[in-house]
Amino acid sequence: MDEIAGRARLAELVAARRKSLRLSVVKAAGGAAVSRGTWLRVEAGDPIQAHNYAGVDFILEWEDGSCERVIAGGDPIPLSPDPSPRTPHDKIEEVIEWAETDPDLEEHERQIILAIVKARVNRDGRTRAEVEHGRDDRHSA
Questions:
Q1: What span, in angstroms and rounded, lies between the C-alpha atoms of 11 and 70?
Q2: From CA 22, how far away is CA 19, in angstroms rounded?
Q3: CA-CA to 59 of 20 to 30 Å: which in 1, 67, 76, 82?
Q4: pLDDT tens digits, the chain, 141 residues: what are they?
Q5: Residue 92, helix vs strand vs coil
């Protein structure tokens, strides 16, 4: 498959997947960290910078490299479904752990992320210890 035909096929698959996930173009582009114009170029079958495909893969819940695989004539690979659904508590714990341990984060970035999570937790009325231990005492009685 030539690149033009591959991009045309990718355009169809991206649009169909976006719609199946009930994402608007604006939401999909935002989740993929690309501009609305870049997203529209993908859905039109036009070329975009290669690094932007990672965001498209992410928001469409495809494995990394799926967009390039489609352009080359293959199929996207959906992410494996989680064997056990994650709760919001799990997601908060993952963000905290990531922010505290990621060596690529600058210290000011780490502090900003942790401050945002702390504000969210405080807004929801839960302490950080409750979040870290998966407890939600607000709903028990």
A1: 10
A2: 5
A3: 1
A4: 799 999 999 999 999 999 999 999 999 999 999 999 999 999 999 999 999 999 999 999 999 999 999 999 999 999 876 556 556 666 778 888 888 888 888 999 889 888 888 887 776 665 555 545 554 444 444
A5: helix
Residue type, 54: A
Handedness of CA 52, 55, 62, 10 (dihedral sign): negative
Query: End-to-end CA distance of the chain, in Å?
Result: 62
Q: Identify the architecture of domain 3-71 in CATH.
A: Orthogonal Bundle (1.10)
The pair of three-digit structure tokens given for residue 16, joined into one six-digit string: 């169909």
CB atoms within 10 A of CB 60: 23
Residues 123, 131 contacting (CB under 8 angstroms): no
